[in-house]
Amino acid sequence: MLKPEIISRVQGTIGKEAVLTAKEDLTTYSYDGTTTWTHMPDVVVLPTTTGQVSQILKLANENLIPVTPRGAGTNVSGGSIPIKGGIVLCTTRMNRILEINKGNLVATVEPGVVLQDFNLALAKQGLFYPPDPQSFLGCTIGGTVAENAGGPYGVKYGVTKQYVLGLEVVLASGEVVRLGGVTAKNRTGYELVMLFTGSEGTLGMITKITLRLLPMPLAQKSMLAVFDDMVAAGGAVSSILAGGIVPAKIEFLDNWFLRRIEELNPMGLPTEAGAIVLLQSDGNPAAVEAETERILDICRKTGAKEARVAKDDAEALKLWRARSAGFAAIFSSAPTIVAEDVTVPRDKVAPFINRLEEIGKKYDVPVRVLGHAGDGNIHPSIPTDIKDREHFERANRAMEEIFEAALSFDGVLSGEHGIGLEKKRFLKRAMDPVAIEIMKKIKAILDPNHILNPGKIWEE
Amino acid sequence: MLKPEIISRVQGTIGKEAVLTAKEDLTTYSYDGTTTWTHMPDVVVLPTTTGQVSQILKLANENLIPVTPRGAGTNVSGGSIPIKGGIVLCTTRMNRILEINKGNLVATVEPGVVLQDFNLALAKQGLFYPPDPQSFLGCTIGGTVAENAGGPYGVKYGVTKQYVLGLEVVLASGEVVRLGGVTAKNRTGYELVMLFTGSEGTLGMITKITLRLLPMPLAQKSMLAVFDDMVAAGGAVSSILAGGIVPAKIEFLDNWFLRRIEELNPMGLPTEAGAIVLLQSDGNPAAVEAETERILDICRKTGAKEARVAKDDAEALKLWRARSAGFAAIFSSAPTIVAEDVTVPRDKVAPFINRLEEIGKKYDVPVRVLGHAGDGNIHPSIPTDIKDREHFERANRAMEEIFEAALSFDGVLSGEHGIGLEKKRFLKRAMDPVAIEIMKKIKAILDPNHILNPGKIWEE
Questions:
Q1: Which of A110, B51, B312, B318 is deepest in the core (most CB within 10 A)?
Q2: A126 contacts chain B (CB < 8 A)
Q3: Residue B1: what pLDDT?
Q4: Nearest CB to A184: which of B147, B184, B375?
C-alpha cells in the first residue's frame, strides 16, 4: 500500500480531481481485455501534460513505486494490469490531436487519443491511418504504439511500427526525451523510436506520437468466400498470396464464430459454412475491380462453395462488423477464455489449422479459430472456467501445446498482442536467451529501479 | 599496428587466403563512397561462416582491436572506413541466398549478397524487394541493413527497416544471437531487430538476414516532367502527394545534373530544362493508367513545360539510368565532393530548395541538387578540392548552413545515408542529448570495449 503522504504528494502535483483512490474506481483499472488476470492498483493518476507525467514518474522513481502505464485498457495480454499494485498512469485525458499535416502526410497526437476519433478526423481530410486493432472504437493510440498493434489491414499495410516517425517519451527518471521527427525518412542514430514502440510500457511513458499517413484509397470492395472447413480456407489464402495478390485484408472465422456471432446479433451470416474468409481490396477503382475478380477466381478454384463481392456498402459493413464482433463473441461465451495470438509463416496456415484441431481433440477442449489469415496471425481461443481447475488446466495445457506447435512451424508466440503477463512463462522457449539478456540490460539502463510496468514480458 | 602474433592467430582461424595484409590490398579497403575520408586498416579478413566471424570478434575483443564491418564499401557517410585501423571484417564472401519462400513472401540471405543479384533471383519468381539505394549494382544487403538504406522506391514502399523480419548477429564478445523470425508479424519482446538495423556496424556484425518480399507489380510506367527550376519542381511534388497520389518513385535533378549526365553519356536529356522530375507508377495495369494521367495532369497544372509518359521501355530505362548516374556525375566532376543527405518535411521541399540557392550564393559555391523529392530527401552536393583549403572550408561552411536550414525546417541530417564520419560533428545539434546518452549506454552494454566500428556516429 502507498503511504498517505505519497498520495498527498501526487494530488499536490496534478490536482485532487485527477487522482482516483476509491475502491470502485480502482477496480475499473484492475483488469484489461484478458479474463485471467486482475490486480488492484493503489492509486490511479490521470495527467494532462508531459510535465505532470514527468513529475509523477520522478516521485515514483525516488520512492520505488511501481507504475503501470495505461490507455483504454483494451490490451489482451495483461500488459496494462497493475500486477504489482502502485500507480496506474492513465493517458485518457491526454487526448488532443495536435496536428494533421496533409502536405507532409504526417500527424502528431497525444497518447490518449482514441483510434476511432483519429480515423474520423483523418477521413474528413481524405487521409488514412491503416493500423486497425479490432478494439479501434475504444483503444488509445498510445496503447497501440506501446503494444505495436496490428489488425486486418496488416496484410497489405503493415503494423503500427511501420507508421511511427517520432515519439516524446518520459523515462522512469522523469527525464523527457524526443526521438525521431516529422520526416518520412530519418537516419539520425539508432532506431530508438522502434525500441520504445512495442516495449509494452516497460521502458518509458509515451506522451506524444508522430505518425505517417496515407491518402485514403479511392475505392474499396469487400468479398466473402465460404468454405467447408478452416483448412480449405487457409489453403485459399496461401494461393491468393502466391498468386501475386496482396489484398488489403484477409480474415477468417470458423463455424463456431459464425454461429455465435449470428446468435448474438442476427445478420444473415452463412452459419452452415465450415469457415468463411472475408477479404477487402482497395486502391484505384479499376485496380480494385480487376483484383477482386482474380481473388474470387482463386477462391473458387481452391474449393470455395461460394465466393462473391458484398452486394452493397451495407452488406460490406455488416461483414466487417461480424469480424469485429469476434472478440465479444468468444469472451461472452464462457466465464474464462484462454485466447491467443500465435503467428506462423503464411504458407503454413493450413497445416497449422490442422494441428489446432488435433490438439483440441487430444485435450478434449474446443479450440475456436479466427484471425488475420493473410499474415499467418491466428487467434485460437479456448472457452473454459477458471473456477473449474481441472478444465482450466486442461485448456492451458492445450494452449501450451498450441504455442509449441507454432514454434515448431517457425512461428511466434505473438503476432500483435505482445507478451505482457499472458505469455511471459513461454518467453524462454520462444526467444534466444542472449536476446532476453540484451532486453534485460536495456531495461536496466532505462529503468534501473524497475518501476515501469514491472512483472511483464519476462519472468523475474 | 597489429602484432604479427595476432595476424597469425587470425590466419590460423580462417585460413591464410582469407586474410589480406599487403599494402595494395589494404588500400582498397581504406576508403568508401565518400571522397573526404580515408584510413588504412591493419588487416582485412574475409570470413565465410558465422563461426569464423564469431572467432574473429572474440579475438579482437580480448585484444581490444578495432573491427570495422564492411560489405562492398559503397557507403556514403564514411561508415565503412577503418578510421582507427585494426581489422576490416568484410562480408563479400558470405554471399549465399539461403532461401526464397514465395508462399510466405520471405527470403533469407547472407550479408554479402549483392542487392542486384538478389533482385535478379527474385524476379525469376515474380517477386520484388523494394529498397533500392542507387548503389544497387554493387552494394551488399548486409550494408543496406546496417545503414537502413533507402532509395527512389522509398516514397511508396518505405526503406530497408520496413522489410527486415529477422537477423542473426554476432556480438562484440563473439556471442551469436538470433533476433526476430520468418513471420510477417512478430511481437515477441523488444524490437531488437530494429535496434541493429541502421546501427552502422557499431552494435554487432550481421551474419544472416530475413526479409519480407512483395509480389512483383503487374505493370509500371515511367514519366518525365520538365520544369523551369527546382522550386517549381518541388511544388509539383507536394501537389501530387496532397492530391492523394503516392507514386512508386518521385525523383528530381537540377539543370547542372542534366547537363553533366548528358556530357558523360549522351542520352537525349532535356539539358535546357531548369529541372526535371522523374516519376514511376506501378501496380495493376488499369490503376497505373489512371494514376499516370492524374500525375501528368497535376504536373502540367503546377507549371511543367512538358509532362509525358516515357514512350517505351527503352526510354524509361534510359531515364532511370540517368538518375542512377547522378552519383558518378557529381563525384567525377571535382577532386572532392561535399555531398549530403538532408531530409525535410514533404510540404517544405520547395522553400528548402530556395534556401539552398541562397546559401550557395552567400558562400559563393555551387550547390548541385538531386534527390528523392517524394520523401523530402534531398542530396545537395558541393564540388570542391580538399587541397584548396580556402575553397574546401567555404564548401564545408555552406554545407553546415544547409544542415542548420534543414533542422530549422523540422528536417533531419540524414534521410538514408547514416551519420558515420560525415555528420557526427553535427549530431549534438540534431538529436536530443538524452537520446544520445541512451545510444551510448546501449553501445556500452553490447560492445563494452568499443571495438565495433569505433569513431562513428558520435564524437568521443
A1: A110
A2: yes
A3: 79
A4: B375
- Would you tell me how many other CB atoms lie within 10 Å of the CB of residue B123? 12
- Sequence-distant (≥ 6) Cβ neighbours of residue B454 within 8 angstroms: B66, B83, B84
- Helices A349-363 + A389-408 axis angle, to 10: 150
- The segment with the largest mean pLDDT, out of A263-272, B51-60, B332-341, is B51-60
**Interface touch A161/B191, C-beta < 8 Å:** yes
Q: Are A398 and A362 in contact (CB under 8 A)?
A: yes
Closest chain A CA to residue B426: A188
Contact A186 B415 (CB under 8 A): yes
Q: Quick: pLDDT tens for A377-412.
A: 999 999 999 999 999 999 999 999 999 999 999 999
Q: State the pTM of this model.
A: 0.96
Q: What is the 3 state secondary structure string of chain B? A: CCCHHHHHHHHHHHCHHHEECCHHHHHHCCCCCCCCCCCCCCEEECCCCHHHHHHHHHHHHHCCCCEEEECCCCCCCCCCCCCCCCEEEECCCCCCEEEEECCCCEEEECCCCEHHHHHHHHHCCCEECCCCCCCCCCCEHHHHHHCCCCCCCHHHHCCHHHCEEEEEEECCCCCEEEEECCCCCCCCCCCHHHHHCCCCCCCCEEEEEEEECEECCCEEEEEEEEECCHHHHHHHHHHHHHCCCCCCEEEEEEHHHHHHHHHHCCCCCCCCCCEEEEEEEEECHHHHHHHHHHHHHHHHHCCCCEEEECCCHHHHHHHHHHHHCHHHHHHCCCCEEEECECECCHHHHHHHHHHHHHHHHHHCCCCEEEEEHHHCEEEEEEEECCCCHHHHHHHHHHHHHHHHHHHHCCCECECCCCCCCCCHHHHHHHCCHHHHHHHHHHHHHHCCCCCECCCCCCCC
pLDDT in tens, B305-364: 999 999 999 999 999 999 989 988 999 999 999 989 999 999 999 999 999 999 999 999
- β-bridge partners, A109: A97, A209
Which of A188, A197, A432 is nearest residue B412 as measured by Cβ atoms? A188
